């Protein structure tokens, strides 16, 4: 069944659990001002790792946000997702009664890159240290990539199309595309997003094979994309959940339309082939623009992937020039994740949340810790930049080769 063109997907709710703030307001205040919260890793069992700096979520109390019966059967990454989903639903002003008579009209889609590593590690330690009788019954589900989707849908009573996207870091944007297409096929609302919790010993060990991972011990220098000092990215935990609704259904509820999900496209160019990602990312941008019926010069701000590897940064700068022409060298570019770290699948959803808030406030947030840009890009640094923003482009690439681009339009924009 093909999506209907008259069913437009719009963002009506945002929920955030990020290193720089829990809740959309706290996240945006810190992001807008360019505050960096990168610091030395303090999570238990990680002090001997070569990765020293990360973006940790602090001040998050899962017991106050998630019921105990869900906490005991889920990992930290799902705690983040459930809390963020609740915030997004509250922001969208969706109550338990809004869809109680039509639960199949609401779906859930999340993206995941690492699953519940902390939960899995704990249960495996019990297996080898104490025996199989000490392994909890939730080991079979808590580590699973689809755990967040399942728990959010069960907890909310959402019985519409549900799924999980496992397509690298770019899966955060691909999940939004799945939500938008579900809206086009008849679903009224989709709770969508991604949250990761990769800062546990087993999870960090799994990341050590990434040559793109920064091992700098200085939080101010560990993650500096688009500069001559670029030496990799800093990992992070957290993420965001959004509520995407069919526009007319949202307006019937009296919901505020924050932004329009206008276009998306994805490509694949292979693991760590950063020079080839130029062509793949440019093709994704062109595809997203075409779906959005958007001319290159209409893009008012770019939220960059900003990997922090010289070859990857150069490829991204060239991809923007290839896809947007000379406008690609003039359009404001930002990468707020340099102040929070790269939360894998959660990173592009956090960028999407920031892009929606930037469109609303008419301001481009700066790129923390980045000053001496060495590429032909108009990277916003230092201070937030006021601007008339109608259309935003969000980019994401995965370490295994996925590329994705998303076009968002201001909620007040018409077709």
From TrEMBL:
InterPro entries: Beta-ketoacyl_synthase, Ketoacyl_synth_C, Ketoacyl_synth_N, PKS_Beta-ketoAc_synthase_dom, Thiolase-like. One of its GO terms (molecular function) is 3-oxoacyl-[acyl-carrier-protein] synthase activity. Keywords: Acyltransferase, Transferase. The keyword Acyltransferase applies. It holds the Pfam family Ketoacyl-synt_C. Residues 6-410 form the Ketosynthase family 3 (KS3) domain. One of its GO terms (biological process) is fatty acid biosynthetic process. Coiled coil: none annotated. Gene3D superfamilies: 3.40.47.10. Belongs to the thiolase-like superfamily. Beta-ketoacyl-ACP synthases family. PANTHER family: POLYKETIDE BETA-KETOACYL SYNTHASE 2-RELATED, POLYKETIDE SYNTHASE-RELATED. This is Ketosynthase chain-length factor.
